Every structure is written in structure tokens, then in C-alpha cells.
Amino acid sequence: MITLNEIGIDKRLHGISAEIDRGMCCHILGENGAGKSTLLQVCAGLLEPGRGECRINEQPVTAMPAPRLAGFRGFHEQNSTAAFDIPAHSYIQFYAGRKPPHDKLIAALDIGRLLARPVSQLSGGEKQRVNLVRCIAQVWEAVEKGQAVLCLDEPLQGLDVRHQQSLLLFLRELCQLGNTVIMSCHDINISARFADTTLLLKNGRCLASGPVHQTFSIDLLETCFGIKFVITNNQNALQIHPQWPSA
């Protein structure tokens, strides 16, 4: 379980509290600048809050030795770049302890044909998939045991619809094994379909946290994003439509 207790960082986060159970996929949503990336860094133990505390399995994440944390917690940041012009497979293995990424991971992110290519020659979406493999390969032993925590900042950014679907289905499979995924997302309908629990941020504050059917109400979404929505239900799946101004 991941417990956030009154997390505060001056001018960025204000008193955020939430609980994310093991095996859950939690989506963090909110406008640009709402604090999603900052909160993910706190959850990953990469940023110490000025107030409050993040705990993983009752232990303060910032008190964990870095090698231990790196063994079960993977972090994927926005727009990450490789420091050296090296083949993708060497880049991944550097983080994975020189072990080759598992075939299942390569297939899920569809990077087999990219492994021999220099990272600098990949498209934006290809780099994104390679970086996701790098993140998950680092903690693969924990993933196989269902003990990993994956903190993913906008993992769908730059991915085409096929690779978005492949990633989301793969993350669902990892959660079913007991792993925990915390990710930021800008597509409300994707979150409605694939998130087990959500956290809505507004100006660094938590508007609501909990299951989708509790947090994805018209009132909460309108408060979070500042526009009006229409919500329908199609085959037990929420369909959320922003209302556009008349031409």
C-alpha cells in the first residue's frame, strides 16, 4: 500500500492525502501545472516533501536506501533522453543491471526492431516505448513477484493508439499480478476504462481520490478542468464528453 499523508511542497502541493492499495492502477488527472509530476516524484522517493510523508508498505519512502528502492520502484519521467548516443538495447541494459529485457516486455512495448538502433535515431514515440521498457526492466524481478511500484509520468505521451492500448493492457496485467501502477494521464476516457482508482488535482490540491465511479462526476470534473462535461454509460463503460462552445 502507498499512503500519502498531508503531502505539501511550497507553491506546488498542498496537504494531499490518499491511499493506493497494492495491485491497483491509479491515474492522476488535472490541468497542466496541477502538480501531477511533482506528486509522482514524491511517490517515487525522488523528491522529499516539505510537509507530510509518503509511505510504501508503512515505511517512509525517503528513508529507504537508494539501492533497495531502485530494486522495486521504477520511475518514468516526461521527455527523458539518453545521455549518450548508444543502441537502445545497451541503454536499457545499463538500467536493468546488464540483463536483457524479458521477451514479454519487449513484445508488450513492441521494441524488438528498435533494440539495435541508436536512441538518437528513434522517433518521439519510439523513444517513449524504449524508456518505458527501461523503467520496467529495471525492476523486472520485483514485477515477476508482483511487488513492484511503477511511477509513470504521462506514459501515453507520443504513443499511437495501438501502442497506447498495448501498454494499458500490459499494465493491467501487471496489476493483476499484484504490482502497483501510479501514472498521470490526460485522457479522461482512457482513465475511466483502465484506472482502478483516480486522484484529481487542482492547483496542487486534491479534489477527490477513489474509484472512478466516485471521482468522475460532472461536478468534480467541471471543477477540476474548468469546463462542462456530459457523461453517458455505454456497455458499463463511462463515456465522458467535453461540451464545446457553439460556433
UniProtKB/TrEMBL annotation:
Q: Which domain of life is it from?
A: Bacteria
One GO term in the molecular function aspect is: ATP binding
Q: Give the keywords, sorted.
A: ATP-binding, Nucleotide-binding, Translocase, Transport
Q: Domain ABC transporter spans what residues?
A: 4-228
What PANTHER family does its record include? Answer: HEMIN IMPORT ATP-BINDING PROTEIN HMUV
What this chain does, per the entry, is described as: Part of the ABC transporter complex HmuTUV involved in hemin import. Responsible for energy coupling to the transport system.
UniProt-recorded name of the protein = ATP-binding cassette domain-containing protein
Annotated source species: Salinimonas profundi
Lineage of origin: Bacteria, Pseudomonadati, Pseudomonadota, Gammaproteobacteria, Alteromonadales
